[in-house]
Amino acid sequence: MSAYSELPLAGIRAIEIEHGVAHYAGKLLSDLGAEVIKAEPAGGSPSRAAEPVVAGRSVPFDYYNTGKRSVALELDSESGRAELRALISAADLVVDDLSDSELQELGLSDETLGSLRPGIVHLSVTPFGASGPWRERLGSDLVSLAGGGVTASTGYDSVDGEPGEPITPTGGHAAHFGGVLAATYAVAALLAPRTEGVLRLDVSVHDVIAVSTEIAVSLWEFGKQTVVRHTGRHAAADLHTPEWQFRCADGRYISAITLYMNNRRFAAIKEWFAEDGLAHDLEDEKFATDKGRVENMHEIVAVMRSFFGGHDSDWLFSEAQRRQLPWAKVQLPQDLVDDPQLRARDFFTSVALPDGRLQEIPGHAWVGLPTIFDVPEQRMRAPELGEDAEILAVQKRS
Amino acid sequence: MNFQPLSGIRVLDFTWNVAGPTATKVLAALGADVIKVEWPLRPDPGRAFSFSPVTPGVFDSGGFFADLNSGKRSFTVDPNTEAGREILEEIIARCNLVIESFSARVMKGWGLGWERLQELNESLVYVSVSGFGHTGPHASYVSYGPTAQAVSGVTAASGRPGREPAGWGYSYLDVMTGYQAAFASVAALRQQKETGSGARVDLSQLETGASLIGPLLMNADELEAQGEAFPPGNHAVERWGQAGYRYEVGAPYNVYPTAPQGEDDTDAFCAISVLTDAQWQMLAGLAAEHGHAAPDGLDTVRDRIERQAELDAWLSDWTREVEKFELADLLQSRGIPAAAMESGKDRIESDPSLAAREVFQATEHPFVGVHRMSSLPVLVDGRPLPAKASWPLLGRHTDEILAGVLGYDEGRITDLRRTGVTWPTGLPRADKPVEEVAA
Question: Which InterPro entries match (chain A) (predicted)?
């Protein structure tokens, strides 16, 4: 227990009610030591059934609920709602992704929250926010990413002068955008908590994505231009830009950015490509300056394509990095599981499931801050439904 | 009452480009005093993004840079001089947090490695932001956002079955690593406040990306078995029974072509996600009302996924007749998840929700002018956070920081400037009058 009390967010208690949007905010808080209690309906949160389900367990549920506690409540009954209110009265934070009407059904107006626990933070993470003309609208991973702006910038090269096919990345990223900023706001708020009422933090996934696509908005606001999608590289105002993703001999791809190709990097490329007899193609004076290379990058790219096509992706990755070129193999999930850098930094942690099987859980963006994965006695896995019912009994006694 | 929970927190910010400055924009918007350190002979390259080549304010006229760095103060000092490094050490002793995004050797090269930082300030939080992290066999690897996206798996998780990866159309991991750094920072600041202890946070874009596809890594064997059916384009899954990584399953589920908004609009799409049988019945009814009767025999999600190519073609026939915002309005009014695929222009000019929630706020910048800048997106007790109309114009706050934070007197400040410690000798400054800059 002593190790647990040293986690950065130890001592914070949060009640989480989620339908698949607010779970990432809760995970970030939980993994850094906050006590995050999932208040679930008696039948379990719908996210317990989120695909893919492997050997009876939802993989995303197990990932997004590490270290959390679970209580199952009869939320349709007054007694269940009373238990929820009792939980909230001993919490610092409520995190949910419910609409206002769903909150009303649970009897959780902000006024109620503030009277149950003066100074409580109410962190709401919803597809379009709790105010504004779209507050009751439904979201999905695709709807949020396309509506917010990721999709318009992402996809394939133009065809016949028309913008190419838009693509929306997979991975459940809509919830990540909203969740990471929401968790940041909540921890910041708890640095200087109020003593009365409720602090309402209303986070809209749509709003967060709208400001999180780099230049797409700025290019319009400052230049009245719109970006065009390009395969495997940045969207840009130009319909044609030099490619920087190439197929290798083993059928895999390398991401070899052609921006920032300064004199040192260009010299390293020439020296390397000379091994295949390709350096003479890059000797022309017109490639000798930054400006010249930018203007003639399509010709350099043709040489790169030829070179990469003759070698396997793993070798290209390590050789490029040995030459301090900022290029990398496009890795697949199965590559990541064996990635030497991730392994050296203990990115994965084995946790025991209730049936005794072990599950490898990917870690965090950072190293250095202790997380529950670093504390052996801490329960790291996702909770079984209602597994922590004793929390309710303690509430009743106190 | 303004929400400024980090008021009183001081941050020394060495970060460049996008990832680090994204983190410190969040901290500044939440009330921290962010001191952005640069040397004008090698300033943040981000200052050059979309800058105007006109001489006045050449460092300060980038619109994207202004947006990304609002609310910070600019401090110029030469860290390669003895006097410059002493000044930095004095500031570090008075800071809560130091953040940088150099390669692992740069801070050490200035004599400001983690051990020295701890000597200067035992409760300091030190956050580094890099591609691969500062330890491990690949610590010396070099990268930009797209490199990190490729190596961390997020590039491969985007694309159409059987085609090459589409990746991301921008440096997603610059933005997300910035946000993760902001979260790690506030968590470490809480620990600092509660226990007085410092922290060394080593953030990598590799781990940021890998953590953002966590469930894919947990199920990597299954993905390998799927081969070219993964990833599924814009679909939830490509075929029935396939594991999907949007964590929801349904069809129709795609972005559909819509009627153009104007003559020059060649890129109009609307995202539609049917996730329940009830939503399907509603969609089929709506389409029929508009003269596009749905194919028969699609009552279950399995049927719809097995025939989703046919469904996409049928639905596109209708969506091509309707403008994207109008279509999203109509679908959402019947409880079907939908949204116009928004460009940057749409978000600035046409989105009523972003407008009502004041996500982009007209803000005046002395060189850039009045523009709609990105706020930190949150409503606090129903009100947006006001955008901060203060800007890290290069070197603009050096003297006030020397006086206000370090207590230096006028003579000493003038000497530092004259001897080239706080501004390069002979380099002209932006020639706008200070009064105008301050306005």
Answer: CoA-transferase_III_domain (IPR050483), CoA-Trfase_fam_III (IPR003673), CoA-Trfase_III_dom3_sf (IPR044855), CoA-Trfase_III_dom_1_sf (IPR023606)
Determine the pLDDT at residue B225. Answer: 85
Instruction: Identify which of A330, A372, A201, A254 has the alpha carbon closest to the alpha carbon of residue B152.
Output: A330
Ranking A124-133, B235-244, B251-260, B394-403 by mean pLDDT, the lowest is: B235-244
Q: Which residues contact A77 (CB under 8 A, 6 or more apart)?
A: none
Q: Are A28 and A97 in contact (CB under 8 A)?
A: no
Residues 278-317 of A with CB under 8 A from B: 317
Subunit contact B67:A218, Cβ cutoff 8 A: yes
- Residues B360, B354 contacting (CB under 8 angstroms): yes
Check residue A249 and give its pLDDT. Answer: 98
Domain boundaries, chain B: 10-211+357-438, 234-257+269-340
Amino acid identity of B273? S
How many residues in total does chain A contain? 398
Nearest alpha carbon to residue A179 among A103, A126, A132, A129: A126
- If one counts every other C-beta atom within 10 angstroms of the C-beta of residue B250, the result is 25
Closest partner residue to A141 (CB to CB) among B154, B243, B248 is B248
Interface of A with B in 29-58 (CB under 8 A): 32, 47, 50-52, 54
Residue that has been written with the tokens 């599924």 in this structure: B232
B234-257+269-340 CATH fold: formyl-coa transferase, domain 3 (3.30.1540)
Supply φ then ψ for residue B368, to 5 degrees: -80, -30
Which CATH entry fits the domain spanning B10-211+357-438: 3.30.499.10, 3.40.50.10540, 3.30.565.10, 3.30.1330.40? Answer: 3.40.50.10540
Question: Please, which residues bridge with residue A367 across strands?
Answer: B202
Q: What is the pLDDT of residues B107-137, one digit of tens each?
A: 999 999 999 999 999 999 999 999 999 999 9
Angstroms from A112 CA to nearest CA on chain B: 15
- Above pLDDT 70, what percent of chain B? 95
CA distance A200 to A121: 6
pLDDT attached to residue A297: 97
How wide is the angle at C-alpha B33 spanned by C-alphas B32 and B35, nearest 5°? Answer: 130
B104 or A299, which is more confident:
A299
Give me the pLDDT at residue A358, please: 92
Whole-number Cα distances in Å, B218 to B215, B227, B305: 5, 16, 25
pLDDT at B87: 98
CA distance linking residue B220 with residue A335, whole number of Å: 9
- What would the pLDDT profile of B66-81 be if each residue is shown by its tens digit? 999 999 999 999 999 9
Q: What is the pLDDT of residue B263?
A: 85
Asked if residues B421 and B84 have their Cβ atoms less than 8 Å apart, the reply is yes
Distance CA A20, CA B85 (A): 49
- Token readout for A165 is 């096919």
User: By the 8 A CB rule, do B209 and B153 touch?
Assistant: yes
Q: Which residues of A touch B123 (CB under 8 A)?
A: none
Flag the least confident range among B123-132, B224-233, B335-344: B224-233
- A319-347 mean pLDDT: 97
pTM above threshold 0.95: yes
- pLDDT value for A225: 92
Q: What angle do CA B306, B245, A142 make, to 5 degrees?
A: 80
- The DSSP letter of residue B381 is T
Q: Is B24 an 8 Å CB contact of chain A?
A: no
